[in-house]
Fold this protein.
Amino acid sequence: MSCGDCHSCGPAPVLPFPASRALPKAVALVGPPNSGKTTLFNRLTGMRQKVANYPGVTVEQHTGIAEMPDGRAIRIIDLPGIYSLQPRSEDEQIAHDVLTGSREDMDRPEAVLLVLDSTNLHRHLMLAAPILSLGIPTLVILNMADDLRNRGGHLDLVALQLQLGSPVALVSARNNQGIGQVWDFLAGAMPKPAPKELPILQDVPKCRQWAGQVGQQANYHPPAPPKWTRRLDAIFLHPVGGPLIFAAVVVLVFQTIFSYSKPLIDGVGWLFEASGDWMSGVVSPPLLRSLIEVVWVKGLGSVMQFLPQVLLLYFFIGLLEDSGYLARAALIADRTMARFGLQGKSFIPLLSAHACAVPAIMATRVIENKRDRLATILVAPFMTCSARLLPYSIIIAAFIPNRPILGNFFSADTAAMLGLYILGFAAAVVTARILKSSILKSSRTPFVLEMPSYRWPTLQSIGLRLLDRTKVFLFRVGSVILLTTAIVFLLCKVPTIDGHAPKIENSLVGTLGRTIEPAIKPLGFNWKVGIGLITAVAQRETLTSTMSSIYGLEESNKVGLREALRSDLTPASAFALLVFFALAMQCLSTLAVVRRETGTWKWPALQFAYMTALAYVGAFVTYHLAR
Amino acid sequence: MARRPREKKPTALDKDFGQPHTEIKMQLSVNSAPPDAIPGTLLDLRRGDAAVLDGIDLPSEEARRLMELGFLPGATVTAGLSAPGGDPRVFQVDGSEIALRRETARRLKIRSSRKNKR
């Protein structure tokens, strides 16, 4: 509970850190949610960070390398946001285990950077008691100093250091103010906390009383209530205006992704075509030339065109989350979500599932209730993820004319896309309702949602998020899609007849497609679509690259996929294909992450069976209705 | 739609102070209880009303979570804005704004309330 070896040193001196000593191996960053911990982490480590999972649990482990002004490097572990060290939730368990050194995969950190919100010091100081009682050298970082000053709050830093027995730094991570004090602490001797009388940690009222006393001794004057937050909330939470703004935000996000991103998408496509042409000019063997055409331009190029859309979506989610609006959106959505048995916090994962189900399923960790969380995980893949956009937009472009419905803003193809979004959403909420009234039945759980103050999102944190997503996207494209495209290309070339490639119908891939044709015939799909569906089980985007290579090989290479689809499919079977894609679980990464988050194969297996069955029935009904 | 069942209920007793007293209320004041001391829950607070929290009628784990967020007995809680339909509602407590659903707010007992002065 207390450090025994520095009883004589008394209260810590004011910031004159003794000269350097051996560099600490690792430093833990601890703080309550909404304390600006992640902003500080980004500020300290920049682009040198890595995200992984703690083995065996679902908590993300963020580590980064910080380079100190003197050039030395230090490892920083960003622990999950916690309110106390009582190990109840998984997040708190991880923080507790790391800080007490009881994890086998990690040494106990040599120092702690405790990040607290200086505008809400009394409540945040409650976390200082359990952290200081660990006896690890601790720097108490009072973040958001700019807010504190602007809103007229103040405190006596020296008195607070005396009270806590640890050095205190007043910083503003967002504006890069006061970060020097953090470096000074890390480079200095890092004294252990001076022994202080701390409250009984299990007793929350006592802890709060202690925090209040410490604040009072430090002459802490809380700042005035955030004026702008109140003003903005009066708009964003207005009984009528609030939901309207909410709807407008959702529409704006989608419209940007589908319409305004076109020049970017065309630009990326052009880049791949131009580079493909150039490479074809350089290499001479015709087989290699067609491999470049198929794998580079049609395979990789058609998928890479989606990078701008994916990034735009992440940009918006980052903007909403960092500005604080997402919490208001969760509040507005709660009542509706509760009707389906979910809760407002499910809204955030379900919104980000529109980019990709994998991070969305990881984001369900904010939901404390296990059953609500499981239900959210199981329905998240119904949301229209960016991987579905590729098949959607090509099929829509081929079968639905771009006719304006409401002027330039809303056209027939946008309406079709919106319809598919609604279909995915409807499937999700109906499934959630079924789950919550059967196997995941539970009483409505206490819903507690903290409303952070509105803040300007920083370019750095959004930029880092986009960078992270680009890496993940490129990795997926680089591995799975490229590999499946190449495999399908080769399967199209065997078995050879007299040293020549066979006709596509006679190739191995054709045989495979014909084998499953009877099963998909009722849906209006032919064997070529069958091959696309087989390869799409691994990843949805592969449908188009596979189809491109099938058609590209069968017909002249110049015929676009759109035209090929239009001549090969009836509109009814195209609609059935769209519905199938909306409802089917075709993503190995999602199944893998569900396995990891739920800890058993039972849930991903159930999810796969349910979604595939629903997709089959849905496509069947669509085909017979549209015919 | 049965959106606002609360408004159909008769107004809570503690809302009627400031209006002409009835005999029953005279009786209450005789019982040496201050006029504001009629117990209620956070649910009885309208936007801008403040009250002192008395206790949390929830299982200890859930109560603890709320206490860590500032809902401690003795803390002053002010009702703020809400989602459309009044559920969930944001409460200002201990320098933070926390949204609670009606069913949770109902479990948080208040000791005394003060009307919005604005």
User: Anything to note?
Assistant: The mean pLDDT of chain A is 81. The first helix of chain A runs from residue 37 to 45. The radius of gyration of chain A is 28 Å.
